[in-house]
Amino acid sequence: MAKWNVEDQGTQYTIEYKRGFNGGKVIVNGSEQKVKSQNVFLNLIDFPIRLKEKAVNVVVIGNKADLAVDGIYLGPTNLMFQ
Predict the structure, then answer these.
(1) CA distance 29 to 38
(2) 62-to-7, 19, 23, 35, 37 alpha-carbon distances in Å
(3) CA-based angle 79:67:17, to the nearest 5?
(4) Residue 13 pLDDT grade (very low, low, confident, very high; cuts 50, 70, 90)
(5) Is the pTM of this model over 0.85?
(6) Is 13 exposed, middle or buried (0-12, 13-18, 19+ CB in 10 A)?
(7) DSSP class of residue 39?
(8) Per-residue pLDDT tens for 53-63?
């Protein structure tokens, strides 16, 4: 599981990614959305989220997950050991 906290105009958002067999789940403040890999051989996900003013993408390549906020990556999270 990977987890990030993002603030947009004073509102706190908790964004999580949970890995599954055919992709996983993106959870924003408790609201779940199933996501599927875009590639059969490699776990490849680019899931856009629109907050009030910020554009956020959950990006997963293999077993690494990262969150991009307005085009800037916050840093990879290794899912293998979490």
Answers:
(1) 25
(2) 27, 10, 10, 14, 10
(3) 45
(4) very high
(5) yes
(6) middle
(7) -
(8) 999 999 999 88
